[in-house]
Amino acid sequence: MATPKDIKKLMIDLEITGGEIARRIGVTRTAVNRTIQYHLKSERVRKGIAECLAMPYDLLWGVNPASNCTDNSLADSGWRVND
Q1: If you average pLDDT over every residue of the chain, what do you get?
Q2: 59 within 8 A of 41, measured Cβ to Cβ
């Protein structure tokens, strides 16, 4: 799992800002920054950040998006806990 500092360094290395990521995924810059700081846990925003940074989701966030479900039927049902 990457720390907020790791993610910010990667953004600097890739020359991409939080505002650019926000525009690409259709959210506010605040949502991107709060997600990077682990204050928001939106799966959609996390996926968008990972895609913009060309990094695997689980490498950035430490978990597979559906891995927090203990019942596979819930994971497949379309319900989202943290989105």
Answers
A1: 83
A2: no
